[in-house]
Amino acid sequence: MVWAALWTVYIVWGSTYLAIRVTVETLPPFLAGGVRFLIAGVLMYGFLWFRKGREGMRVTAPQLRSAAIVGSLLLLGATAW
């Protein structure tokens, strides 16, 4: 199992470098970042829908505010530096 996990990490991690190389040559940086965040959001939404169903999709105002703050900080701070 350890070797299977290591090979999975090697393949997944290595494929991200290939994807970055292709993306840098074909898309503008901000569009590439936007597409990356969009894909991640859709995958997370689908996973949550699968796990929690319709009731898991309800968001309260404090949760929305917190998510907006954290998302803005990640977008502006983590990727801009």
What is the number of strand segments? 0
Most strands sheet: none
- Proportion in β-strands: under 5%
Rg over C-alpha atoms, rounded to the nearest angstrom? 17 Å
Derived structural class: mainly alpha
SSE succession: HHH
Low-confidence stretches: none
Separation, N- and C-terminal Cα atoms = 37 Å
Q: What is the helix fraction of residues, given as a range?
A: over 70%
Approximate shape: extended
Can you walk through the features of this model?
The chain has 81 residues and is mostly helical. The chain has one domain. It has three helices and no strands. The longest helix has 25 residues. The chain is extended, with a radius of gyration of 17 Å. The mean pLDDT is 88.
Q: Would you summarize the structure shown here?
A:
This protein is mostly helical and 81 residues long.
SSE arrangement:
Elements: H1 2-26, H2 29-52, H3 61-78
Annotation keywords:
0% strand, mainly alpha, extended, 3 helices, 81 residues, single chain
